[in-house]
């Protein structure tokens, strides 16, 4: 389910090729070449991911769900937290070397990237959760109703204003369509463990 209050408060970082409401949520078509990355290893800067973002508080949590029904190199969807073009975090499922991977990119001027293969997630509903409290954002993910997996704990200045919501990118091809099936606010995690 898409929270109508989040949708009403949100705007796109970069407009996708197309998007529409559906009975199940949102359908977003990415522009070929869209991505979010800064410098590290590749040497380029991309700041045209399709993020539909709403305010994200200093003690807040957000969950984004989507179907992992894509399979092309670097196709990706998930949750984006953004302070500026130089400071952001994206987490979700990305296809790399032919395999779906759960992972995150944390960017403070320069991007890093961590992934773990999740081939059994293909064709299923993935939920990514970001929980912000104090000086950290904790990212967890799961498929269907399986247990949450810790993806990343990343630092965040408690005074930083963030926007957050679903995102998708298609760095290498046209025609990626992502079905966002859920976007909701919830309580922050009570503890890391």
UniProtKB/TrEMBL annotation:
It comes from the Bacteria. It holds the Pfam family DUF1349. PANTHER family: REGULATION OF ENOLASE PROTEIN 1. This is Regulation of enolase protein 1, concanavalin A-like superfamily. It comes from Klenkia taihuensis.
């Amino acid at each position: 389910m898409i929270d109508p209050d989040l949708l009403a408060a949100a705007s796109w970082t970069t407009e996708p090729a197309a998007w529409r409401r559906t009975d199940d949520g949102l359908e977003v078509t990415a522009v070929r070449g869209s991505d979010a990355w800064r410098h590290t290893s590749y040497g380029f800067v991309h700041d045209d991911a399709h993020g539909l973002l709403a305010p994200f508080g200093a003690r807040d949590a957000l969950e984004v769900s989507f179907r992992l029904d894509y399979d092309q190199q670097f196709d990706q969807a998930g949750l984006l937290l953004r302070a500026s073009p130089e400071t952001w975090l994206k987490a979700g499922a990305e296809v790399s070397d032919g395999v779906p991977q759960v992972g995150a990119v944390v960017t403070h001027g320069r991007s890093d990237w961590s992934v773990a293969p999740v081939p059994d997630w293909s064709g299923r509903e993935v939920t990514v959760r970001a929980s912000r409290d104090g000086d950290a954002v904790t990212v967890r993910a799961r498929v269907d109703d399986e247990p949450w997996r810790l993806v990343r704990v990343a630092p965040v200045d408690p005074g930083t204003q963030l926007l957050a919501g679903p995102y998708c990118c298609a760095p290498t091809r046209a025609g990626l369509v992502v079905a966002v099936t859920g976007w909701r606010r919830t309580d922050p995690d009570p503890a890391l463990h």
